[in-house]
Each structure stands twice: as structure tokens, then as C-alpha cells.
Amino acid sequence: MPKQNNNNSLARQWELLRIIPSRKPGITSLELTKQIADKGYVVTKRTVERDLRDLSTLFPLMADEDSAPFRWYWLKDISSEFGGIEVADAVSLALAENVLKSILPISMVKMLNPKFELARKKLEALEALPISKWSSKVRYVPESLSFKPVNVREEILEKIQSALVDGLQIEVKYDPFGKASKTYILNPFAIVQRGVRTYLIASNSEYGEAPMQYAVQRFRSVEILESKSDIPKDFNLENYIASGAMDFGSGGIIKLEAAVSDTLASYLNEAAISDDQKISYKNGKWLLTATVRDSWQLWFWIRSQGSDIIVQKPKILRKEIIESLKETKLIPAAPSCCGVSFVPNIRHMNS
Questions:
Q1: Which of 11, 87, 85 is nearest to 42 (CA)?
Q2: Which residues have CB under 8 Å from 89's CB, separation 6+?
Q3: Is the pLDDT of residue 142 over 80?
Q4: Residue 342: predicted pLDDT
Q5: Widest Cα–Cα separation across the chain
Q6: CA angle 105–111–114, rounded 5-degree value
Q7: Mean pLDDT of all residues belonging to the chain
Q8: Rounded distance, CA 116 to CA 107, Å?
């Protein structure tokens, strides 16, 4: 049997304390050995029995000696204070910590911080187990340019979250992009994390009941009012996102047709941009057709592909990209190829 280091022994005993029942009839050392083995520890029944004897000198553990085999249990119900988190939970928390901190209410994050710390300590104690290193071996990397997190004042975000939870209006001082600060009374609908930016979805009495996007980093002050937030009954966050609203486009649907390079055709065959995407080879070139939303997201993607994509339809979009590229001096006055561009007709407070 491989030698167990001190960290591994500590982790194993931690698991034993968590597994032992809080009351009679208890659990036998053989049953404990099987359960601890299922968690990845290579131990014998004798080792578990030695652990139990050692732990019983430190914690209120009791062995029912009325009949063999002896059954172990807690003398009083404090078992939940030990372990408190399984290996899978520790790995999950380690991976999810940054994401959870960006979307959960700050008050809740503060409550979870001890759990995050417990997860880190758990993984340190379990370093002898291969699975404990999982969080150091996987990462999510966005396809787009990596942006540094924007500066959001914690006290402002906390007030917005609190108003959202309690369903109350807020009075805010807000800096629209490139414009002077304005004061609004908003009805908070939801909060959406889009990349490194956090947006409040809310209605503004100046613009009616339509949901609008407010970049949280542009709030200068927030005061929670006593009046209830006026939220339309038909507002649904999932439907709102599915409509393409967070892509900051017109929200309309277009039929994109374009010639694509061998490389891009291969890439899109692996990861389609729509459910009805088709790629066919005709007249010596690959042709892409896909039903997509008219959005900035689409615009940035097409522009990023350079000469790997030549948009053919819609014709009005083809014409607009030609004009756009002329302005940026990327193509001559008589272009031989083009992508798609458009100026979305949208109403949001992020522009």
C-alpha cells in the first residue's frame, strides 16, 4: 500500500468525521472503509479503526460496544461542523468562484466567502488525490479579445442588487457614453453579466416601459426609493436575452449569404452560427447560408474574419460594409469583396 502523507491522512480523517452518523445505530469500521475508498482513499479497515480511535480522543465520538461489529456515531449532533463540503463541491466552487462573485448579490458573496476558503483548504489537504488538481488544469478562454474587468463601485452595485431583490425603484445619477451626467428614476428588471461588463436592465419613465440597458460602471450614485418597481408582467429575462437585445442590434432576423474560405468553412462546420446553417461547395468556392440576428455581435464577427468571408446578401448590408471599409481605407473605391455592416436602430443607455 502506498505511504500516505500527512495532508492525505488529514483529508481522510476529515472525510471520516463527515461520514460518521450523528446518532445511533451508527456505522461500522468496515462500512466506513468502503465509503472512504469510494472517495479515492487507499486504506485498510485497520487504518480506519486506528483513525477512529485517534479521533475519539479529540472529538465526541462513541462506539456502540453492545454487539460486534462496533458502530460509530457522534455523541452529540455536531458532525455538520466537520468536512462540510465534499471533494466535488470543493472543485466546483474553486472553478465557479469568479463567475459566482460576478453575478450573485454582494451580501450573498460575503456569506459564501467562508465556503470558497473552505474549498481551497479542502483541495490543499487533498493534494495527493488527482481530482483535487482539476481546477488548476482547466480554464475557460473567451474567443473574443480579453478585456480587463471594468471598475464597478461595490456600494453602488450592492444598492442596485438590493433594490432588484426587494422590487423597489432607484434614483440614479448616470453617465451616458460621451454625454453629461443625467438623473433618472429607474425600475430595475434584471442584472446581466456580459463578458467583463455588468448591465442593469431597467425601464426609464422618460422612455416608457421598454427595457433598456445601463452599464453599471457608469452609475455615479444610486438611492433606493420606497416606491415599488413597475415591471411589466410579460417581461421574461430568458426571452429578452433570446431576442438578441444584449447583442445591441436591431433584434431583426436576416438571411446571411456569404462566400467563405476553406479554413472558415471547416471552422463553421465544427461550430455553426445558427440552427439552419448550411455550407455547400459551388463553382469552386464554399457558400455559407444562415439565419442570424442583425446585431453588433454579428458585425464584429464578420469584420474579424477579414478576407475569409465575402458577404453576398442581404445586398443593402453588403453595400453598407463597402462604405464602411472605404471610410476606414481598408478597400479601394472599386472593391472586389466585402463583408457586412449596419448601423443598428436600437434604444439603450450604453451608446
A1: 11
A2: 119
A3: no
A4: 35
A5: 96
A6: 135
A7: 80
A8: 14
Sorting pLDDT into bands at 50, 70 and 90, what band is 79? very low
Q: How far apart are CA 54 and CA 50, in angstroms?
A: 6
Peptide bond into 335 cis (omega under 30): no
Say which residue the cell 413597475 belongs to.
Answer: 230
Residue with cell 425601464: 203
C-alpha cell recorded at residue 288: 455559407
Angle between helices 106-125 and 87-103 (to 10 degrees): 150
Residues, the chain: 351
Where helices occur in the chain by DSSP H, the ranges are: 6-19, 29-38, 45-56, 87-103, 106-125, 154-166, 237-242, 262-270, 296-304, 315-327
Query: Who contacts 242 (Cβ-Cβ below 8 Å, separation ≥6)?
Result: none
Q: Is the peptide bond before 114 cis (omega within 30 degrees of 0)?
A: no
Question: b/e per residue, 306-316, with b = 16+ CB within 10 A?
Answer: eebbbbbebee
Pairs from 331-337 (Cβ < 8 Å, separation ≥ 24): 337/307, 337/310
Cell numbers representing residue 290 in the block: 444562415
Counting residues of the chain whose pLDDT is more than 90, the rounded percentage is 29
CB burial class (10 A; 0-12, 13-18, 19+) of residue 148?
exposed
CB 330 within 8 A of CB 292: no
58 vs 177: CA distance, rounded Å: 62
